[in-house]
Amino acid sequence: MLTISRRISVIVSLCLFSYIGLISETFSNETSLETINSGDTAFVLVCAALVLLMTPGLAFFYGGLVRKKNFLSVLIQCYIIIGIVTLQWVFIGYSFSFGSSELITGFIGGFDHFALKNVGMEAKGTIPHSAFMIFQGMFAIITPALIIGAFAERTRFSAMCIFMLLWTTLVYDPVCHWVWGGGFIGAMGALDFAGGTVVHINAGVAALAFALFVGKRKGYPDKISPPHNLPFAILGTGILWFGWFGFNAGSELAADGIAANAFVVTHVAAATAVIAWAILDWIINKKPTVLGVITGAVAGLVAITPASGFVNPMGAIIIGFGSSSICYFFVAYLKPKFGYDDSLDVFGVHGIGGIWGAIATGFLADEAIGGTAGSLAQTMIQIKSVIITIGYAFIMTYILLFIVNLFVKLRVTTEEELIGLDLSDHRESAYTVLE
Question: I need a surface site. Which of 15, 92, 299, 411 has the fewest CB within 10 A?
Answer without folding.
Answer: 15
